[in-house]
């Protein structure tokens, strides 16, 4: 808790300043709502926002899991085949220069207004950091350790599952944590491209009626969702990679 | 002719033989005609300056590398795969897996060979008591001292059940006091083991204390082979004389 205190204090100060400035300058709510207005939007539209949150949270979690599974499968394939790695890895890096969210409208045309295209957008956005970190992690095994394993009856499969994979877990989780913060963005873009529910949809609906406070309320919830997903991944890391925390003297 | 003899000797029983071994790395002959015989139960020390090809020699014996010329034979096996099946390597750094407990680390070779984790632990547990590791079984490497880690690494090497143990500067990274303790410990540990042992070190004293014979590697060749037929006591006159001869051969 003590660790978070400075950050929390900073956030509290920023919110206080925001409230003060908006009130002092008498800014209308539809232009820039004060934190208190956002808070009352959260309370007034609680039911509506709760339903939308459930939809978006589901898109984020399922899309994220899809990304993790596909990214790890590809990373293992790239790790095991040097030819594949040389062929695919550069393309993967180049693909990152394409702003992937622009595919959202195309996916909506292809896959309709259901959850499908949202999962694909979330997965596309989260995929890259996991693959790249996993490939790096799997290839980072100490060469001396690999030589030793060969003299200890080590097979390719034994090396992979006893040395390379456990050794790559910290790197894999680094990528997975970065990816977790992208999931909310992916879900909102997916909903903007075509949807009838979710927090992104609520934001679109609130725009014509100039209900800016509700848009801010949706943004607050999205941040909390991203934070929760990040926290869940960090917790999973603590459970699956306990030696790292022990070694750090935690 | 030399090669034929080496193959014959190898086939006759255990042990390691190198005949006319040349290994060129980066255009430079690191090993330039090495001839060496190690009996099936013999402990041979290999000393020399850093960069004289000691580790290259171990890699060749282990089957991790192939010579450019000459024959390396381990228990009659001259192919890399055959040699790999006969040798276990203990590297300078302990190379313990940080996510495994000490006991699970020691089980590595047994598990690689297809044994279940539970069965491997039953095999490994008695060795922990024997090698002064009782009580450390469930600790992860981060919680072990440098000396303890090296002992676990040795038990891991031993449990591979190979005919030849290759120890590459096993105590090179330890402080002087721990090093002395472990040398004594290793002498006791090896006394009961029937395997052939190749100990690579740059510490002449260490080689003389732990080995039956000491080969000096210099300029890519074996410059001298000394029988350690003196008391293993650093203050003994014979020991001092032997150390002087070894150091002379290195230079």
Q: CATH top level of chain A?
A: Mainly Alpha
**CATH fold-level label of chain B:** Rossmann fold
Give the count of helical stretches of chain B.
Answer: 10
Name the shape of chain A in a single word: globular
Straight-line N-to-C gap of chain A: 15 Å
Question: Largest sheet of chain A, if any?
Answer: none
**What is the assembly state of the chains in this entry?**
heterodimer
The CATH architecture designation of chain A is: Orthogonal Bundle
Under CATH, the topology of chain A is which? MetI-like fold
Radius of gyration of chain B: 18 Å
N-to-C SSE string of chain A, H for helix and E for strand = HHHHHHHHHHH
Largest interface between protein chains, with number of residues from each side: A-B, 22 and 29 residues
- How many domain regions of chain B? 1
Number of helices of chain A: 11
Helix-strand category of chain B: alpha/beta
| Fourth-level CATH superfamily of chain A | MetI-like
> How many angstroms does the end-to-end distance of chain B come to?
31 Å
SSE order and pairing:
The complex is a heterodimer of chains A (250) and B (251).
Chain A: H1 5-25, H2 35-44, H3 46-80, H4 82-95, H5 103-111, H6 116-138, H7 143-151, H8 156-192, H9 199-206, H10 212-240, H11 242-247
Chain B: H1 2-12, E1 16-25, E2 28-38, E3 43-47, H2 54-62, E4 69-74, H3 80-86, E5 87-90, H4 102-106, H5 108-112, H6 117-130, H7 146-158, E6 164-168, H8 176-191, E7 196-201, H9 204-210, E8 213-218, E9 221-227, H10 237-250
Parallel strand pairs in B: 3-7, 3-8, 5-6, 6-7
Antiparallel strand pairs in B: 1-2, 1-4, 8-9
């Amino acid at each position: 808790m003590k660790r978070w205190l400075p950050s929390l204090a900073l956030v509290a100060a920023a919110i206080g300043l925001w409230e003060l400035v908006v009130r002092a300058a008498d800014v209308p709510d539809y232009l820039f709502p004060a934190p208190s207005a956002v808070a009352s939007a959260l309370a007034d539209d609680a039911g509506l926002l709760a339903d939308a949150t459930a939809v978006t949270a589901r898109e984020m979690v399922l899309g994220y899991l899809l990304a993790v599974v596909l990214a790890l499968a590809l990373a293992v394939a790239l790790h095991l085949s040097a030819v594949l790695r040389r062929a695919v890895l550069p393309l993967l890096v180049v693909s990152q220069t394409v702003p992937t969210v622009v595919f959202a409208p195309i996916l909506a045309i292809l896959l309709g207004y259901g959850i499908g295209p949202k999962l694909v957008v979330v997965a596309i956005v989260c995929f890259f950091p996991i693959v790249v970190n996993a490939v790096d992690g799997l290839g980072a095994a100490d060469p001396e350790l690999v030589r030793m394993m060969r003299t200890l009856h080590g097979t390719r499969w034994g090396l992979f599952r006893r040395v390379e994979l456990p050794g790559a877990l910290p790197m894999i989780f680094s990528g997975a944590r970065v990816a977790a913060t992208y999931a909310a963005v992916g879900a909102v873009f997916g909903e903007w491209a075509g949807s009838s529910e979710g927090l992104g949809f609520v934001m679109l609906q609130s725009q014509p009626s100039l209900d800016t406070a509700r848009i801010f309320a949706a943004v607050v919830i999205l941040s909390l969702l991203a934070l929760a997903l990040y926290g869940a991944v960090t917790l999973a890391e603590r459970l699956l990679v306990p030696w790292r925390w022990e070694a750090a003297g935690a | 002719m030399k090669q034929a003899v080496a193959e014959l000797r190898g086939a006759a029983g255990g042990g390691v033989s190198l005949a006319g071994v040349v290994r060129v790395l980066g255009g430079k002959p690191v090993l330039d005609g090495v001839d060496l015989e190690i009996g099936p139960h013999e402990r041979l020390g290999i000393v020399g300056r850093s960069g004289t090809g000691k580790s290259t020699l171990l890699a060749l014996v282990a089957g991790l590398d192939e010579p450019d010329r000459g024959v390396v034979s381990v228990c009659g096996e001259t192919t890399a795969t055959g040699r790999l099946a006969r040798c276990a390597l203990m590297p300078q750094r302990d190379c313990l897996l940080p996510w495994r407990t000490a006991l699970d680390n020691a089980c590595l070779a047994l598990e690689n060979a297809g044994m279940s984790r539970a069965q491997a632990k039953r095999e490994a547990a008695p060795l922990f008591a024997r090698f002064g590791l009782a009580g450390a079984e469930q600790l992860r490497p981060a919680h072990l001292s440098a000396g303890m880690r090296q002992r676990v690494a040795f038990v891991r090497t031993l449990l591979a059940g190979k005919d030849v143990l290759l120890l590459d500067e096993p105590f090179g990274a330890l402080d002087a006091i721990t090093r002395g303790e472990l040398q004594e410990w290793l002498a006791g540990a090896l006394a009961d083991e029937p395997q052939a042992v190749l100990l690579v070190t740059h510490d002449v004293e260490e080689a003389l204390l732990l080995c039956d014979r000491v080969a000096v590697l210099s300029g890519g060749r074996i410059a001298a082979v000394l029988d350690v037929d003196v008391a293993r006591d650093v203050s003994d006159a014979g020991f001092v004389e032997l150390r002087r001869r070894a150091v002379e051969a290195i230079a």
